[in-house]
Amino acid sequence: MEEQMTFEFEKRKPIKGYPELHWTGKRPYTSTQYYPAQLKESYGERKDGWMNKIFWGDNLQVMSHLLKDYRGKVQLIYIDPPFDSKADYKKKIKVKGKNVTGDTSSFEDKQYSDLWTNDEFLQFMYERLILMKELLAEDGSIYVHLDEKRAHYVKVIMDEIFGSDNFRREIIWDITVLSGFKVSAMNWIRGHDVILYYSKTGNPIFNKLRQPHTQDYIDMFNKVDENGERYMVAHGTTRYLKDVLNKGKPYGDVWDDLLSYQVLQKQLKEVRNIEQLDELLTATKEVQNISNVWDNIMSFQQQPTSAENCGYPTQKPESLLERIIKASSNPGDLVFDCFMGSGTTPTVAMRLGRKFIGADINLGSIQTTVKRLLETAKTCGEDSFTGFDFYNVNNYEFFRNPVEAKELILDALGVQKFDSSSVYDGEKDGWMVKLMPSNRIATKADLEELKANIPYSIWEKRKEENPGAPVEKIKVVCMGHEADLKASLEQDLSAYKLEIEVVDILRDKKDLQFKRDADAEIIREGNKLVIKAFYPMNLLQKLSLQKETVDDWKQLVESVFIDWNYDGKTMHPAVCDITSKDEVVSGVYDIPDGATNIKVKITDLLSESLEMEV
Q: Where is the DNA methylase N-4/N-6 domain (predicted)?
């Protein structure tokens, strides 16, 4: 059976003379099991037998699933993983339309927290980078986007996994914004991100890109020959300006020139006004050249009002991904991003004629990406791969916002919740309940916080008073776990008699009843499908806390998708009513001839969806 399939990895032996990073709880990662995926929705048509893929789930499980068909087949991986920034990342939620009463018409909804304990960040990255190497083709490359806090650790890990010989470049992306707290801090102003570029082998795909020269450099060509051509003499060599402009300047590792063609036009017009200008512009337009310090690709902190900005936390500009994808892949190649976020990587890959696979554990990411891809597909040429399928891995059906998952799970289990000062999250029927991270498989390292904060003095007293009885009954709740999780906890706490139970939500979720987040009234009126009302309960509750009153349910909706002939398994939306800014959905739709089993999916401003058959 597919579910029992296991993939083994090559064991990596330490290389004499090379450093290796160690951390508390470092564990080898030499195999993984296959995880099934469920096709939930399908958009567009296949091209040359290919459909792009979007996955919702833990990327460790997603990549384990992909190994079956895509091991060694991915030409380019770009990831923008958590930086261990200790920050909460929020999305601004704005009610659509202007008929809203209250002090404000928007609030911030936390999408995820970038919080890590002990050394779990390093183990988290270690395991995923191993899987990424397995997916890369022999001519493949990987770009890992980080900041200065963790880049040096991740580089040593990547040296171990990919080999230091396959380190290609450290790219500096200038994101300096001279405002906010950092301006007043008594320190140098942080102004860049780091992108680590590695290849799988010594022969990666690399298309050399070019950029225009600076005006200062052009001004150095201050001599004119008898034909009116500008030139300079340097180190005994004569260089003509037209030759330099035609070749362009190779990019380094500081990136500073994304508006390069517009700048190039301006430069050429300033050089000389001759009939050959248009010909020269045409010749140079496609041969712009680039370095590894990138300081003219503007972040959304630098251009917050950009039309491209969809309000998703940590969103990266399309120009950044365009540079990477053009340099390290060719049309028709496969691009992968398993920390997809706002969907910039698949969006640019589609536009540039690449195939793509994307994944994220945050449902808000999935909804944002689907919306962007559908809009991008409208403007793509016939050479682009615009069709895509949406899958769940391991059926995270009830999983909405990772930040709220804890509350959902505790409520579904009927746990009496404790405050944050307790090592446990709550109690049920005499069992102390401890939740493991809800966005990935629980590992033995995740038990460290529990073991470090156990009330051992109380346990000792219980042990003395009643030696034959358990000092505690502990229920560990997780979303999948390592096979020896329970045994490891029992061994580490073997000085005490305990009762330990591991509850796997993915395995046992059929026994749980999670609250329904939304409801709707949808009816047929003749040949029309009419959404009369929509009640997104979670969103309405948050709006009530903001003292907001909404006049029309459409103000709460991001999109309405309709499949007129739902097959009971996969949605194939024929209607994709997607809004932008203050626009609202129609709410009334013509029912086509031949419509049979109608399924409607309504997605609210929190990216939570209600699916109903009509």
A: 74-368
Contact 324, 290 (CB under 8 A): no
CATH architecture designation of domain 518-613 = Sandwich (2.60)
Q: Is 106 helix (H, G, I), strand (E, B) or coil?
A: strand
CA distances from 16 to 11, 20, 21, 153 (A): 16, 10, 14, 19
Query: Which pLDDT tens digit goes with each residue over 307-357?
Result: 566 667 777 889 999 999 999 999 999 999 999 999 999 999 999 999 999
Backbone angles phi and psi of 372, in degrees to 5: -65, -40
User: What topology does CATH give the domain 402-511?
Assistant: Trna Endonuclease; Chain: A, domain 1 (3.40.1350)
Sheet with 609-613: list strands edge to edge.
575-578, 557-563, 599-604, 609-613
Separation of alpha carbons 37 and 64, rounded Å: 11
- 2-94+117-167+194-202+300-393 and 402-511 share one fold: no
pTM over 0.85: no
Q: What is the DSSP letter of 289?
A: B
Overall fold of domain 2-94+117-167+194-202+300-393: Rossmann fold (3.40.50)
The least confident of 97-111, 260-274, 381-395, 482-496 is 260-274
Which residue has tokens 């409208």? 378
Q: 540-599, pLDDT tens digit by residue?
A: 877 776 556 778 899 999 999 999 999 999 999 999 999 877 789 999 999 999 999 999
Instruction: Choose between 508 and 317: higher pLDDT.
Output: 317
Asked whether the beta carbons of 428 and 413 are under 8 A apart, the reply is yes
Q: With CA atoms as reference, report the closest residue to 117 among 363, 572, 423, 404.
A: 423
Cα 602 to Cα 287, 532, 539: the distances in Å are 46, 13, 13
